[in-house]
Amino acid sequence: MTTPTSADGLPPGARGLAMLSVAIGVGMASLDTAIANTALPAIAEQLRTTPAASVWIVEVYQLAMVATLLPFAALGEVAGYRRVAIFGLALFTAASLACALAWSLPLLVVARLFQGIGGAALMGVNTALLRAIFPAALQGRGFGFNSLVVAVAFAVGPTAASLILAVAPWPWLFAINVPLGVGAVWLARRSLPHTERAGHTIDAPTALLNVFAFGLLILTFGDAAHLVGWRQLLPEALGTLILFALLLRRQAGHSAPMLPVDLFKRPLFTLSALTAVCTFATQSLAFVSLPFYFETTLGRSPIETGFLMTPWAALVAVMAPIAGRLSDRYSPGVLGGIGLALLSGGMASLLLLPAAPTPFDIGWRMAWCGIGFGFFQAPNLKAIMSSAPPSRAGGASGIVATARLIGQASGAALVAYCFTLSSSHGTRYALMLGAVFAAVASAASFARLVVRQQP
């Protein structure tokens, strides 16, 4: 079968196969962001390591993804989004097999590092691929489906991990990716479109500076949340600033900078990226803090906790396609603003839970949050991608994924800080912050109504 070339999207049959390959890859990469958290106690016990050391299983994956997203997005503009996506799928699949076969913590951490790199290659270009897969008139629907996959995978990760661990040892959490990944690579080679390539080149020193700058940034977030001493935190913060300054200086004058400062000169793009960071921070504040409340305060089991979180994911699944279709007709600023105002109200409603809440008390509030979150994502994706010129789709796609991961990492770090302030009221503080972040995101979304789109 000949791989299609995209002009204004693919025909329906080829479009469905291409979307399926992207969805499998994005789903696996998003799921593995959340799934390992639940498995850490079991992994630490079986590998005979300490809980503190086992945290590297999660942190190295996040660090690898955030640090390499933008270099892979830039590479996609030069080498083609299709090539980068297939490479990412293949590497993620091979690394998943290595994770399943790892017999020691160091080997598992190295395998997770490569898994994160593979996930970054895919996530860095997947939104740009959607722009090539769907015709302009239907791109909102494509972004809606992509939003559904990412949000649901992140939300159901803990439940899926609990169910797998109930019947199988932890290596199966990673082994299950292998047949899915092989199928996704096969589909991708047959169906992903070729796209026009940019004429500029990739500068290796810029890519390395990007990797170290973003890696140190995430490390600094985590250490700040755990209130490490200033003698450790200050050098990390200064190092981060120096690396970003060197990165900006190195890429100055480049027609397509890897850290896309050219796109941030566009008000619509900047407001949309800010909206994404704040919203994913809100989601992370809820999804990291609420399990502690459900299990520690209410005495629920991990599986019960997963089901209590499910209404959020279920309503995202319902609303994301609807919001995607609406975004083809109505302003993303209005749709996102309304959705995020609902999300802020939903987070506030969780603060008003009774002392002994029933599953219904929790469920309708989580559903309320899911409606708001699901109403935001697809319109915001469309706003980010449409505010960038076609030649910079890779840079815009990289910012989509980077904004999501930085928001999630910031939210998780803030949860740790909240629990450092008070172990008994940490969840309450986190929900308060989440409501504030969602309100700021709603304001940023409505602000897009007064800025003009740039060609």
TrEMBL record:
It is found in: Cell membrane. GO terms for molecular function: transmembrane transporter activity. The keyword Iron does not apply. GO terms for cellular component: plasma membrane. The lineage of its organism: Bacteria, Pseudomonadati, Pseudomonadota, Betaproteobacteria, Burkholderiales. InterPro entries: MFS, MFS_dom, MFS_trans_sf. Keywords: Cell membrane, Membrane, Transmembrane, Transmembrane helix, Transport. Its main location: membrane. Residues 18-453 form the Major facilitator superfamily (MFS) profile domain. The chain crosses the membrane at residues 53-72, 84-103, 109-130, 142-164, 170-188, 200-222, 228-248, 268-294, 306-323, 335-356, 429-451. The keyword 4Fe-4S does not apply. This is MFS transporter. It is a multi-pass membrane protein. It comes from Duganella callida.
